[in-house]
Amino acid sequence: MLLERLYDEDLAQASYFIGCQKTGEAVVVDPRRDIADYLDLATRHGMRITAVTETHIHADYLSGTRELAAATGATAHVSGEGGTDWQYGFAAERLHDGDQLRIGNLVLQARHTPGHTPEHLVFTLTDGAFADAPGYLLSGDLVFAGDLGRPDLLDEAAGGVDTRYQGAKDLFASLKRVFLSLPDHVQVHPAHGSGSACGKALGAVASTTVGYERLYAWWARYLAEDDEAGFVAELLEGQPDAHAYFARMKHENREGPAVLGPLPALERIEGEALAARLAADEAILVDTRDAAAVRAGSPAGALHVPGPAKAASYVAWVYDPATEHRPLVALAADEQAAEELRAHFVRVGVDALTGYTTTLDGLDLVPAETVSPAALEDFVAATGAAVVDVRNRTEHAAGHVPGSTQLSGGRALWHTDELPDPASGTPVVTYCQSGMRNAVVASALRRAGHRVVQLEGSYAGWSAWRHQLVGTGTR
């Protein structure tokens, strides 16, 4: 048996390539939408992908199930559980609790495990060449290393009302009925790692075991004591903000993401030609430099997406394909770097990158408006500026600039009604922890018409200034 984990550091997302080395057949579980890595693996190992499946309707990235099935001729399999509201809207084989996928000598058995989502499945995996019982579990968003999938995303991202409580209870039952019924030696391979917004305290290790989680996970004692109420309370406490684009992912993944097929070559456009398109508002520049360079000067109307490491995460904060249809032109070192950016973008359904530029020469660069921590109080008093913390609510609760309101970066563009009317000219002073997230959000809000003033040094800078004042007895 071959089992390879393909991990996307950008979205903290894991997919799995599982193959039978005897028959050369393979299945991919929870693929992302840029599929080259799966095709390369199949070629390298002399295998053919005959099945593609996923554990649930994802909220944080766009599924590659349809894309990979279309490219390989593999059969797509999706959950048929969850009731009428959670049925997929595209053609695929439906899996129900207990159904099996046979890949050569391997057997994947679907188990319905509602909680994170109503239709959620996990897959036990039996290597028939060596064993007659499962040795592995693809746990999706049910169990992570040290944590569980959050049950509140339907409220946060899909328009649900108080579904989190029933979801938490369902999760408790799924752990008892399925996860803890497995032997301790079963290896657990989750769909996310540290940094994912699908849980609040995910471990950074790639896998765990049933026995380890049974002994040491925070939730284990609640199951051991059959304390559902205590479990629900701790599970729901302190969950991070859900990004607004999650709602779009939920909808598109349920209905079926558009199949891209082979993509056209990206156009290289430089200098005056690019300046003319930007001036005519026929394209949007994506400035991929670091936050300090962007603050020093970036073309008016440009979006800041530091790349490529977190390009998918951040482009989904600043560009909404449901409302924005102008093509994107990215600053990139060369065509290969631009193609890497496009691969990240399509993971979150941003398919609008059509070109790249290797230089900003010939473009007018506008420095970002900033205010120092020392001048902030007087600036707010003089202008009536709103001070906005674009970090997560848990970060804000742990400490913030006095008088600031919290609106996380992944939600800001969708909640501009919480900010001063751009027509009023009232500034919005924004900050994050160190300045990177702030630069991303500021670019989107400026493009939306707001006068954005970035707090120099962000919260870390403000805290250092404040501590210096306290230490010198100034305040």
TrEMBL record:
Molecular function (Gene Ontology), one example: metal ion binding
Chain ranges of the Rhodanese domain: 279-306, 381-471
Pfam families: Lactamase_B, Rhodanese
Protein keywords: Hydrolase, Metal-binding
GO biological process: glutathione metabolic process; hydrogen sulfide metabolic process
InterPro entries: Metallo-B-lactamas, Mito_Persulfide_Diox, POD-like_MBL-fold, Rhodanese-like_dom, Rhodanese-like_dom_sf, RibonucZ/Hydroxyglut_hydro
PROSITE patterns registered for this protein in UniProt: RHODANESE_3
Coiled coil segments of this chain: none
Domain of life: Bacteria
Protein name from the UniProt record: Hydroxyacylglutathione hydrolase
